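re: ur question from earlier - yeah i can do the single chain one, its not a big deal. heres the input i used so u can compare w yours
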Amino acid sequence: MKFELETAIEILRQTPQTLEQMLGSLSPEWTETKDDRSDWSPYDVVGHLIHCEDTDWIPRAEVILAKGEDLRFPPFDRFAQFEKYRDQTLAELLTTFKNKRAQGMEQLRAWDLTPEKLALRGIHPDLREVTLENLLATWVVHDLTHIRQIVTYMAKKYTDAVGPWKEYLSILK
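and the output i got, formated as tokens:
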């Protein structure tokens, strides 16, 4: 599928509502953090998504669009959510994410991105040169990856309870 901004925005604007519907009224047994940096809970993922809104997608796009002398992106802390949002409830995180994503979508639309702008480049700390289109496509796939991560985390809670059906449930493998 070729990248199209409008179809990318379809996913980006739906992610907060998807997470709110999926997680908003669940008991903590499904969602609470264990502060495990190798197995993120839904709570951890939502905190991570907020941190990305603050420091990743829009700020990195701004670096690219500024067309300045320094096109390097600042490094990104993948684990900031474990300290940064520790004192908030999941409901508060979901609301914060929804509000920050709405602001990001406003900014994204305000840029009136053309094919020429989407081809502009920035410098990722590890990956080197990337285009604005690469960044925006990655934002979409990043959202989808974390939705999958949440669903997998939750499904694994019933690994033993499903008994012999485990062999038919690919999410548990």
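Residues 56 and 76 are 7 Å apart (CA to CA). not sure if urs matches, ping me
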